[in-house]
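Key result, reporting period 2: structure in, sequence out.
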């Protein structure tokens, strides 16, 4: 994914050496701030600059599960339908749809004159190619399992597409409205275009450039199907800055307009200043201390219970994640399907020691693999290591690159313990996908979970779905395949000039189309 920068010669090359030397003279935490440039310029006024705490793993919407990735690519793509602010589903690329009485056939009518960034008009064949690509084994999409009931997608004419299911699937609209349901152009899919480094969609912004560890640039799409209202920024730049303090200082200096991290120490400062403000909401994330249930030691329920009893959830949320609400389930606190299950393993170090004494634990070292580019997760891992050490567990903290975490931990389950936050889903089925079959990174399986999830997928009656998911959450709380720590608060720092700032519900992504700057 590394994109090479253009090498300049002559006087520009000499200037680059001078700038590099000057930056090396600046203390490391402030180099990124120094490199951002002056706060006031015509370009700055016509653009919005956003500080982002890490790199996306790809720019391909079908090949990722990363929250930061969907945050990064939100402006490039559209989906057939989209979530509304009240939890409803509303038209997007599809202006209307209908479903057969048996729930097996869904028919979508596409908008006219929607144009892809490379110039082609959207047609039903593009929708067919998109979902066939997701299901293609060579793509290895982590979301293919959510479409396993899809028998086929067919174009009835240029603007009408039909989804045919093998059995009813209630979460289908949520699936189509999620970021990974982005519609791609069929001609580029067929030619093997590298969407991972050059996204091409129908979105409000057109991709310009991605330099890994530095920035992603996008410019306004002049032919966007929704239209372009006065005041929309000509360009949006995502600046990749992993240090919280650097993001905060850049915001204060006017070198960034929005930042995705604010430390507790800076909350009051940013709120009291006249030129900055803080957007504080409960995120859709579930922070977890995950355990590999295939590990010989962690197969013992008593050991997993001991680990859960050793963790002070509120302390972890307050210190590592700037606050939040503890949970005991795999759904975030604000999810309408969240079941307020009493924590079966509350913080109790003495009970944790007793359980370890009863188990076969003999002092083995557990590896805790943590993505090093996520500063809050690293802080949480350090706290977990200390808490587990107090009850007699030996833990070795291993910091790894995000790409390595995705391949080694999430895809290949090569870990003992890990720390991560699971992104929000529009329907619970998206969060629990794979936990019915054992096809999940913590290698957990329960026969009752399989029964409950299968029933919930085909159940149309809302109250019954609540009951099914509540029972599943109680089972997972008792089985504790991972420590469900809590839902963190999201603190976004903004310049006072920012207007129409809106995070997509459950998806934790900025609606770039609505974003404005005075």
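The corresponding designed sequence is given below.
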């Amino acid at each position: 994914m590394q994109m090479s920068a253009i090498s300049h010669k002559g006087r520009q090359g000499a200037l680059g050496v001078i700038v590099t030397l000057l930056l090396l003279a600046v203390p490391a935490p402030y180099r990124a701030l120094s490199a951002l440039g002056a706060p006031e310029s015509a370009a700055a006024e016509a653009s919005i600059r956003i500080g982002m705490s890490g790199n996306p793993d790809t720019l391909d919407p079908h090949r990722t599960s990363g929250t930061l990735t969907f945050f990064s690519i939100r402006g490039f793509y559209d989906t057939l339908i989209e979530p509304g602010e009240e939890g409803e589903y509303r038209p997007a690329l599809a202006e209307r749809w209908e479903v057969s009485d048996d729930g097996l056939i869904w028919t979508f009518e596409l908008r006219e004159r929607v144009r892809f960034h490379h110039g082609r008009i959207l047609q039903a064949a593009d929708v067919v190619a998109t979902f066939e690509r997701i299901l293609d084994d060579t793509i290895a999409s982590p979301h293919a399992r959510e479409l396993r009931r899809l028998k086929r997608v067919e174009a009835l004419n240029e603007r009408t597409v039909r989804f045919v299911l093998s059995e009813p699937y209630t979460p289908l609209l949520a699936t189509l409205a999620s970021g990974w349901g982005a519609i791609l152009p069929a001609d580029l899919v067929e030619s093997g275009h590298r969407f991972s480094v050059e996204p091409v969609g129908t979105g409000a912004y057109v991709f310009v450039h991605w330099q890994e560890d530095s920035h992603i640039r996008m410019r306004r799409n002049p032919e966007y199907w929704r239209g372009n209202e006065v005041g929309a920024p000509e360009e949006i730049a995502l600046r990749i800055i992993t240090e919280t303090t650097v993001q905060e200082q850049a915001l204060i200096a006017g070198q960034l307009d929005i930042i995705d991290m604010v430390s507790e120490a800076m909350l009051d400062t940013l709120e009291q200043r006249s030129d900055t403000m803080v957007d504080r909401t409960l995120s859709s994330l579930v922070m977890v201390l995950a355990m590999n249930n295939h590990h010989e030691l962690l197969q013992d329920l008593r050991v997993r219970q001991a680990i859960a009893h050793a963790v002070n959830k509120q302390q972890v949320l307050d210190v590592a994640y700037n606050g939040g609400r503890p949970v005991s389930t795999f759904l975030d606190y604000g999810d309408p399907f969240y079941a307020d299950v009493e924590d079966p393993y509350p913080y109790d170090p003495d009970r944790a020691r007793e359980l370890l004494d009863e188990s076969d634990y003999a002092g083995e070292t557990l590896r805790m693999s943590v993505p090093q580019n996520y500063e809050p997760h690293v802080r949480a891992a350090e706290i977990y290591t200390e808490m587990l050490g107090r009850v007699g567990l030996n833990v070795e903290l291993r910091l790894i690159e995000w790409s390595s975490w995705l391949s080694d931990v999430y895809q290949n389950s090569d870990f003992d313990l890990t720390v991560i936050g699971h992104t929000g889903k529009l329907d619970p089925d998206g969060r629990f996908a794979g936990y019915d079959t054992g096809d999940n990174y913590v290698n957990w399986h329960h026969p009752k979970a399989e029964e409950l999830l299968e029933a919930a997928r085909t159940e149309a009656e809302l109250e019954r779905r609540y009951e099914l998911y509540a029972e599943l959450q109680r089972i997972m709380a008792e089985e504790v395949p991972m420590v469900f720590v809590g839902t963190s608060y999201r603190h976004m720092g903004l310049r006072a000039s920012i207007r129409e700032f809106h995070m997509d519900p459950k998806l934790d992504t900025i609606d770039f189309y609505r974003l404005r700057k005075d």
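The longest strand covers residues 482-495. Residues 286-489 form a domain with the Dipeptide-binding Protein; domain 3 fold (CATH 3.10.105.10). This case is discussed further under Risks and Mitigation.
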